[in-house]
Amino acid sequence: MIDLYTAATPNGHKISIALEELELPYTLHALELSKNEQKQPWFLAINPNGRIPAIVDRAADNFAVFESGAILVYLAEKTGRLMPADPKGRSLVMQWLMFQMGGIGPMMGQANVFFRYFPEKIQPAIDRYQGESKRLFRVLDGHLQAHEYLAGDYSIADIANWAWVRTHNWSGVPTDDLPHLTRWLATVGERPAVKRGIQLPPSQLDRTASEEKAQQFAAEARKMLETGQSREQGV
């Protein structure tokens, strides 16, 4: 049994999706970020960085794993699924996983801060992070032109990137001109385990909503920025 400590953010949904795909038994613990539950001493004992998600593998002497990418690798290696065992296949998955961890996540996260949360509109910052997010989307689109998934078969690399890219409306970055990325988003999104995973936990903040609806959420989201949570939690 695995304890999953999480919240309804892209990074959090990476892990709930993976657990659903792998059909591993787990107990979901949804933390209230606005109440700083992730900063409490009991959680810092699991993740010293005070961020979600984190897991505790009870079947492995209560082994704790934090950082979403590291959790995905741990779960894949634990089960022998969603990542090839051969060095080249594993490397391909790790390359696209690191692409998300080092590029997609940070750039979209910063786009979210300046486009949605920050009380002042600093247009050069918005342009910078939306532009870089779009550049990374084009990289994905170009690769997906000749590949159904990012690294051969469906893998943790797809889970990690999809959990973020699906929220492109919230970041203010359109994908209408990226047909291969759009196809991949739809294909992954139709997987039953993915549909379940993005509802665990459910979010009141619909990051895939239209622009009009997205603006309705912005005021509440700014409160999270004011308390220092939005960027830190990858929302």
From TrEMBL:
InterPro entries the UniProt entry points to: Glutathione-S-Trfase_C-like, Glutathione-S-Trfase_C_sf, Glutathione_S-Trfase, Glutathione_S-Trfase_N, GST_C, Thioredoxin-like_sf
| CDD domains referenced in this protein's UniProt entry, alphabetically | GST_N_Ure2p_like
GST C-terminal domain segment(s): 86-217
| Keywords associated with the record | Transferase
In which residue ranges is the amino acid composition biased (Basic and acidic residues)? 208-225
Q: Where is this region: Disordered?
A: 200-235
The molecular function terms in GO held by this entry are: transferase activity
Boundaries of every GST N-terminal domain copy:
1-83
Q: Which PANTHER family match?
A: DISULFIDE-BOND OXIDOREDUCTASE YGHU, GLUTATHIONE S-TRANSFERASE-RELATED
Give the family from UniProt: Belongs to the GST superfamily.
Q: What name does this protein carry?
A: Glutathione S-transferase N-terminal domain-containing protein
Q: Which organism is it from?
A: Rugamonas fusca
Taxonomic lineage per UniProt?
Answer: Bacteria, Pseudomonadati, Pseudomonadota, Betaproteobacteria, Burkholderiales
